Amino acid sequence: MRVHNFGAGPCTLPLPVLEEAQRELLDFAGTGMSVMEISHRSPEYQAVHEEAIALARKVSGAPDDFEVLLVQGGATLQFAMVPLNLLGKGDQAGYVVAGAWGSKALGDAAHHGKVYAAWDGAGSNYIRMPTPGEIDVRPGSRYLHVTTNETMGGIRMVDWPGTDVPLVADVSSEYFARPLPWDRFDVVYGGVQKNLAPSGMAVVFVRRTALAQRDLASYLRYDVHAAHRSLYNTPPMFSVYLMGMVLRMLDDLGGAAGLERISAGKADLLYGAIDESGGYYRSPVDEACRSRMNVVFRLPTEDAETRFLRGAREQGMVGLEGHRSVGGCRASLYAALPYQSVEALVEYMGAFSKGC
Length: 356
Ligand SMILES: *Cc1c(COP(=O)(O)O)cnc(C)c1O
Prior knowledge:
Elements: E1 4-5, H1 15-24, H2 43-60, E2 66-71, H3 74-86, E3 92-97, H4 100-109, E4 114-120, E5 144-147, E6 149-150, E7 155-156, E8 167-170, E9 185-191, E10 202-207, H5 222-227, H6 237-252, H7 255-275, E11 294-297, H8 302-314, E12 317-318, E13 329-332, H9 339-353
Parallel strand pairs: 1-12, 3-4, 3-5, 5-8, 8-9
Antiparallel strand pairs: 2-10, 6-7, 9-10, 11-13
Helix pairs in contact: 2-6, 3-4, 6-7, 7-9
Bound molecules: pyridoxal-5'-phosphate.
């Protein structure tokens, strides 16, 4: 039996996609092999690869002056590749630190260039994003890095920073779930396992004018991936294949704008249940910054949270534990999570709070 999977990552995947993959597992496109066994230079795989890239472009709405790169190493490798590729000698870059992921991005970048925190929310326990005016970008900075949705804390950046400096965004946990002001960005990246596909890679959009030849090992260079259409070496073929199928579905739903509407609907339903619980459930984050993807909430006591999570598991609702570093509960409402799963959760929450 399939469960309601509220896990924060890897994410639930659409059932029709899993079924199609199952049907094709032993014989993909008449090759007599699975997509994991064929050559990455074969015409059958080339078609999968090109379709996934084209759909990533279409669904995201990224303009033609961006390259779409498929890179292994998840979002974490991008914490290094961004400064390695964008920072020339003497360049500096600012980072908005609104949670654990922004903090890691800054920490890793510090090994590779002169970077600074343009805003840090640690003092307020990462319960909100900065207002545009609070972000302190030093003149001449090469880029400003933002994490648009902090997955652990459950907050999202609603207003974009007001700066002329190009933005770089880690959008891992809300990938393709909102239209982006592309003219503001030089790089947009994210690991695919939060909203789009099984783990194994990041999708990285890089503005062509930001590509530079750097003195780096080949795999670390954006321009090398771009020149080889992300086939410089063997790509994570199963991840690419499954992402292509998920993106077909997202395309049918209306792309980023469509997914944004659907995500807002799911989030509104759940936050509504929290707000109308008479204080039994409580959202610890600033209301203006509530994430639509990772809904963090607390119960009156830790004991109640333990019983709540146990009862949820018994009813086929899994992955609701808060991140191990913060505790509480967290429901992740990623692209493939059905609306019915949120309805089931809300119904359970109502019954639980009344002691049924
Ligand atoms: C999960 C996550 C990451 C790390 O992703 P990996 O693909 O596991 O490296 C980075 N940033 C954000 C916002 C995330 O949610």
